[in-house]
Design goal:
The structure holds 2 protein chains of 2 kinds.
Chain A lengths: L12 H24 L15 H11 L1 H18 L6 H4 L1 H16 L13 H23 L3 H21 L3 H28 L8 H32 L11
Chain B lengths: L5 H17 L3 H17 L7 H24 L7 E10 L2 E9 H27 L2 H10 L4 H30 L9 H32 L19 H23 L3 H9 L1
Antiparallel strand pairs in B: 1-2
Helix pairs in contact in B: 1-4, 1-8, 2-4, 3-4, 5-6, 6-7
The chains are: A mainly alpha, B mainly alpha.
């Protein structure tokens, strides 16, 4: 008798179809977000970027397919509602990175993406998360206005909040999600998303931090307020389906 | 214009939009913008219709933000200072300082003009290429079938999501969920509920569509696949693409030497 071997299914039509549909969904939300909450002076930047609530969880559920969906949704946004034209292909790397940062973190640390599994003291965690988000927005302002004392205070508060969160709910997944899925993703995409248009002359470097704060705050709010509950409620169910991606592509 | 291959139209849009960023002389960009208008007129779309006008006005207002950004957040020293004021002071250090010079106006106009040029190129793309044309065009140049199908499904995803969003929202409203006159935390909660339903619907659709594709025996990778609608690239398409690439290379040269396309053309005939 030959030994049984575990076979990885590889890339299937399911992955391509879900990427296409997710791209469409995220693109529509991105356009809507840019219309309802624009951040002057940068076109294409929203103070409430709803699309991030779709493709960041998707990148954790579907691996690179979620990141690709984020990238192409941003390309569509670039074509439809910004004057960036072909530059959109480079600008959209910001949204690719936004999905990639939490994905890389979870894969490197070999953590379970189900942040809702065995979640303890949910209400206290959400309150702490809200305080952390507000604190991080203040930190962004402190960075932009070059106020080191305020920046240091917000950093200490952020570390304390994260430590308390860990004591309330000692879960590696939750901690990784807060650091990389919310803070890291929002910061990484904000830095790229503002630097690219400026590098191509669509703005002045003097306006860099204003744009970064707008982008960062917009993504931070959406990722913590909408993407987090979605991750908590849906991850367990999606892991049971055949669409769920354990590796990078399959 | 309709007779041009969709891939040629795409090349026209993308290469010209890169050229509009590369060309160093503002006059050349103005001529490129005029060329954009000619392209749009050639598509014979009703450019003076109400819907079209609305889209253009919306974009021009968005473009104004780029212009204003240069006014309020740049420090371009020039020959003539038009306006100067200090706004934010922290610890005897001016954080926000508005300085408007002749150079500020030149740079703001320069980038706004390039942005308008790219916007009209995108507008040309949207009015002249339908999603069906795009897919058939890509297939005709041997673009992988699976990629074409994914692009097609993305367009489908856009309209499907919009329909489903309104269906879910109306279903919630009929059950007494308030969307308009409610507090922000309640609004966020409602949004989460809609998003969760939409994501579940998306996964359901994915299973249905992928099962249907597999049932039809469409493989992920197969090179020899025939197409019903075949748009072959013609000689004029190759000629247009060749001219575009030549123009692109020449615009890079102009960027390096700091010349003008218009003056170099005039120079040829003088």
């Amino acid at each position: 008798m030959s030994e049984m071997k575990e076979v990885k299914p590889g890339v299937t039509w399911q992955h391509l179809v879900v990427t296409a549909l997710a791209t469409g969904d995220a693109a529509l939300l991105a356009i809507y977000a840019v219309i309802i909450a624009p951040v002057a002076p940068f076109p294409g930047v929203s103070g409430l970027y709803l699309a991030a609530a779709i493709y960041v969880p998707l990148s954790l559920w579907l691996g690179m397919w979620g990141c690709i969906a984020g990238y192409f949704s941003c390309v569509i946004l670039g074509f439809v509602s910004t004057p960036f034209g072909a530059v959109s292909f480079i600008w959209s790397l910001a949204d690719l990175v936004e999905g990639l940062i939490p994905l890389v973190a979870f894969r490197i640390f070999k953590a379970d993406v189900d942040i809702g599994k065995d979640l303890k003291r949910k209400n206290e965690l959400y309150i702490l998360l809200a305080i952390l988000v507000a604190n991080l927005i203040v930190a962004a302002f402190a960075t932009a206005l070059v106020i080191p004392i305020l920046w240091l205070i917000t950093l200490i508060i952020a570390i304390i909040l994260i430590v308390i969160m860990y004591f309330l709910n000692p879960s590696k997944s939750w901690l990784l999600y807060v650091i990389f899925g919310i803070f890291g993703a929002a910061l990484g995409s904000a830095l790229i998303g503002i630097a690219v248009p400026i590098a191509f002359g669509f703005g002045s470097w003097d306006a860099f931090w204003i744009g970064v704060i707008g982008w960062f705050a917009g993504d931070l709010i959406v990722l913590s307020a909408i993407a987090t509950p979605m991750m908590v409620y849906l991850t367990g169910k999606i892991k049971e389906t055949s669409i769920y991606v354990e590796g990078w592509f399959s | 214009m309709v007779k041009i291959h969709p891939v040629t139209k795409l090349a026209l849009v993308f290469i010209l939009s890169v050229i509009s960023l590369v060309l160093p002389n503002i006059l050349d960009v103005i001529y490129l913008l005029l060329f954009d208008f000619i392209l749009i007129i050639l598509t014979k779309v009703p450019i003076f219709s109400k819907g079209f006008r609305k889209a253009i006005i919306a974009f021009l207002l968005a473009n104004l933000s780029i212009f204003i950004a240069w006014f309020f957040f740049s420090h371009e020293s020039g020959n003539i200072t038009i306006f100067e004021v200090n706004i934010v002071l922290i610890k005897d250090k001016w954080i926000w300082h508005i300085l408007i010079t002749d150079q500020t106006i030149y740079k703001a106009a320069n980038i706004s003009l390039r942005a308008i040029t790219m916007f009209f190129l995108m507008l040309f793309m949207f009015v002249s290429i339908s999603d069906r044309d795009l897919i058939h065009g890509l297939r005709s140049i041997k673009f992988p079938f699976s990629v074409c199908l994914v692009i097609s499904m993305t367009f489908r995803g856009l309209s499907m999501f919009q329909q489903e969003y309104f269906v879910v929202k109306e279903a919630m409203m009929t059950r007494g969920v308030e969307f308009e006159k409610t507090s922000i935390p309640k609004k966020i909660k409602n949004f989460i509920s809609i998003f969760i339903v939409l994501i579940i619907l998306m996964f359901k659709r994915t299973e249905e569509m992928s099962a249907s594709i597999e049932a039809r025996g469409i493989p992920l990778r197969q090179k020899k696949r025939t197409v019903y609608h075949y748009y072959p690239m013609k000689m004029r398409d190759y000629l247009i693409i060749f001219l575009l690439i030549s123009f692109f290379i020449y615009s890079i040269y102009l960027r390096i030497v700091g010349g003008s396309f218009l003056y170099s053309i005039i120079g040829l005939f003088m």
